[in-house]
Amino acid sequence: MIGQKIFKLIEDLFPITRSITGDGVRETLLKIKKGYLPNLKIYEIPSGTVVEDWVIPKEWNIKEAYIKDSNGEKIIDLNQNNLHILSYSLPINREVQFDELDTHLFSLPDNPKAIPYVTSYYSDNWGFCISHKQREAITEIASKTPENKFHVLIDSSLEDGSLTYADLIIPGEIEDEIFFSTYICHPSMANNELSGPGLATFLAKYISEKSNYYTYRFSFTPETIGAIAYISENKNELRKVVAAFNLTCVGDNQSFSFMPSRNNNSITDKVARHVIKHQKEDYIEFSFMNDRGSDERQYCSPGIDLPMVSIMKSKYGEYPEYHTSLDNLDFISSEGLESSYQVHLDCLNILENNFKYVSTFAGEPFLSKRGKNYTIIGGKENNESKAAKLILDIIACCDGSMDIVDIAERIEIYAIAIIPIISSLEADGIIKKID
């Protein structure tokens, strides 16, 4: 199962400490390049580079971080969970009183077992993210010995460096592109972070091993600043994009969620809605204006306006494990990843074949001489006559105004099911493709 292979990649990437810059991003991209996508290109944009209205920040890396009690025992340790550190924390190595430490601790009282994911990319701060149960334990220690101090170490660096991203271009018959974007900046979270890159990797691997009508573009960037940088660096190339997908939150076992594009009526919207409508379970559709929150904010923005949608499982911000340590490997499954892979693959196969056709004959063609009998026995249809009726229904829609999705919607069938029929009709000269 492809879902098991995606899960294995996610397992491999899960322990890496990532942020919007730094060695964790490089390590993640190198693992994908060396193990799966040898043609993946990795780029570095220097700190201080202006990208649209933003500036590439200093590069952040971290080696070690902990809190020790007065007995020298580590009570919080980055090595136990890399969500423990406030991302982009400044370095510190000193003793502090509890009152000061308490202002640099982040926890979730309403989700007391979870370690929250918190960042401080653009303001100077240091801190630790802990479960609320851990916070209560530290508070109890402090209440018993208020004169004692805690030793805080954050061995981090914030220096001129670069922002790292990668992309892969897979040439097709034409230059028009289908674009997949995903992000690689969160630390150890499975659904919100790694399910996207995992799915992107295996979709790219599949596409790169076959011939394609469209050219395909895959980007692996830090969220927000990375997407803005990618736009700034590739603005002219992105004008070739005719359909686009943001890959995030695709790994759990819940029903599908759909985030439409800003315009809500692109070819990507039409194909994606058609595909997820034909899955076994109902899906939830969200509003771009009210519910957007990932890199569709950048790629759908005015001036770029890509036809980008997101087909997710549990949408970001809509499940209690989101942005916490509970979004772990137990939260996702190979089955959930498999279904997301298949849905996106169906979208690709439809897009690759989504042309308009016209019938080459006046009236219905004579199917019997082509081995397609349209016979009703005793007033009842049989399987053979039903197949012939489907062919005639398809031909009846081939007036040059409808593409494959339109035809499928008109005759109430999944577009995937009629692609081989249309190919056969075209090969027999019964219909022809139009530009």
Report the CATH topology name of the largest domain: Aminopeptidase
**Radius of gyration based on Cα positions:** 26 Å
Tally of separate domains: 3
Shape: elongated
Give your account of this protein's structure:
There is one protein chain. Helices cover 34% and strands 23% of the residues. α1 (2-13) packs across α5 (190-208) and α1 (2-13) packs across α10. The chain has an eight-stranded mixed beta sheet, with helices on both faces. A four-stranded antiparallel beta sheet has the order 5-4-9-6. α7 links the parallel β14 and β15 (284-285). It has 13 helices and 21 strands. The radius of gyration is 26 Å and the shape is elongated. The model is unreliable at 375-379 (pLDDT under 50). It starts with a helix and ends with a strand. The chain is α/β, with parallel strands linked by helices. The protein folds into three domains: 2-57 and 162-353, Zn peptidases (Aminopeptidase); 61-159, Domain of unknown function DUF2172 (Glucose Oxidase, domain 1); 356-434.
